[in-house]
Write a structure and sequence with these properties.
By secondary structure, the chain is mostly helical. The protein is 80% helix and 0% strand. The C terminus is likely disordered. It is a multi-pass membrane protein.
Length: 410
């Protein structure tokens, strides 16, 4: 077996361990509201800061990986996540939630973002890139699957603090594996990337922050960048910002137990693994922009039906929604990365970092606005319908992205 698959396996386990922090925000809204009497809008603001920094950090983290290496950046990020999460145990004011969970965990998780998966894939694989991208993207869903039922049980039976400690320990345990087992480049072990030819390891790229900004300005002069950023912003709004943050409290509003709602999100994680790996396989074989259009259209249709499906108990139509939505959860990632690679070549990981930043800004806005809408209207219905309409817009935007001529791609 080629060493690249071993590196991909280490990256997969790393993302699973780090994914624990992503499972917690939706479970914290009600406990923090009850204990500290903070409004859902205030808690949603802390989550939105976390999501925004998650995205805005990604392109700089990709550039830092070029400068200092993958394992150094990722190991440090895991330690920051662990420290920020455990610090919430002693908070007494809402600004501390914004600082610890929003800023520290946001910065750490941004360095563990999908730009990490894109960097590993670009360096270690020439063949099977779409499939590997799908597998690493699915790792986040697998982490959600592993931790969400446990965290929801801890929150219900023991409070939110033991759940926060569990998240902190998960990130802390993974850090040594990254440091000891991950390698930055195939040339470090005298190999060629999988399916490619041997190349010397490039010299560390100085000026990581400057390079990230330079790549942004260069990409921003092209139409595909804005279309990819726009569609991915809607992707973030309709997944992390909406469903991951607000599905559990929305289901609880209709009388569903928190553990049951969290269990449904875990099922989303199961089917997301299937859907994302399948999407990577499709991306190796079909036109990426058409795949994106189909994914966004189907997601929008499913979200339009959700307000009619929420009930005190889990029934077959809700199970169908969870399966259908789960298959589409982050299936958009492999074709989006493929389009970045097609249009931006060696800078594609950093460009994808900026596209991911738009994803998280969209998620942050909806995490905040969704909480405000719930406070103002007493229901999440308007947010579900608006998100469905945005997905229809994203499907149209995806079809507008032009194919790059093969000669330019090469």
């Amino acid at each position: 077996m080629h060493r690249a698959w071993f590196v991909a396996a280490v990256a997969f386990v790393t993302i699973i361990g780090a994914a624990a922090f992503a499972s917690l925000p939706g479970l914290l809204i009600e406990p923090l509201h009850e204990e500290f009497d903070w409004s859902r809008g205030t808690i949603g603001f802390a989550v939105s800061v976390n999501l925004a920094l998650y995205g805005l950090t990604a392109p700089f983290a990709a550039a830092l990986m070029d400068r200092f290496g993958i394992r150094r950046v990722v190991a440090l990020a895991l330690l920051v996540i662990s420290g920020g999460t455990v610090a919430t145990l002693w908070m007494t004011a809402s600004w501390q939630l914004v600082l610890f969970w929003g800023v520290l965990v946001g910065l750490g998780s941004g360095s563990m973002a999908l730009a990490f998966a894109a960097t590993v894939t670009n360096r270690w694989f020439t063949a099977r890139r779409g499939l590997v991208t799908g597998i690493l993207t699915a790792a986040g869903a697998s982490g959600q699957l592993v931790f969400l039922p446990l965290l929801s049980w801890l929150v219900v039976h023991h409070g939110w603090r033991p759940a926060a400690v569990t998240v902190s320990l998960a990130a802390l345990v993974v850090a040594p594996f990254v440091w000891l087992l991950l390698r930055d480049h195939p040339a470090d072990v005298g190999l060629a990337p999988y399916g490619g030819t041997y190349a010397e390891k490039p010299a560390p790229a100085p000026g990581a922050a400057r390079r990230a900004v330079t790549v942004l300005f260069k990409a921003a002069r092209t139409g595909p960048f804005w279309l990819l950023a726009g569609t991915f912003a809607i992707c973030g709004a309709s997944t992390n910002g909406l469903v991951k943050t607000h599905f559990v409290p929305a289901a609880h509003d209709h009388g569903m137990p928190v553990t049951a709602a969290a269990g449904l999100l875990a099922v989303v994680g199961v089917f997301d693994v299937i859907g994302t790996i399948a999407s990577g396989w499709f991306t190796d074989r079909f036109e990426a922009r058409r795949l994106l259009a189909v994914y966004y259209a189907l997601r929008g249709i499913s979200l339009m039906f959700l307000p009619m499906l929420l009930a005190p108990s889990v029934h077959p139509p809700m199970v169908f929604f969870i399966i259908f939505y789960g298959l589409d959860w982050v299936a958009t990632v492999p074709p989006t990365i493929a389009l970045c690679r097609e249009h931006y070549g060696e800078d594609s990981a950093i460009v994808f970092g900026w596209v991911l930043a738009s994803h998280q800004v969209g998620a942050a806005l909806v995490a905040f606005l969704g909480g405000l809408a719930r406070d103002a209207f007493g229901s999440y219905d308007l947010v579900w319908y608006a998100s469905g309409a945005l997905c229809a817009m994203a499907a149209l935007m995806a079809m507008v992205i032009r194919r790059r001529p093969a000669a330019l791609t090469a």
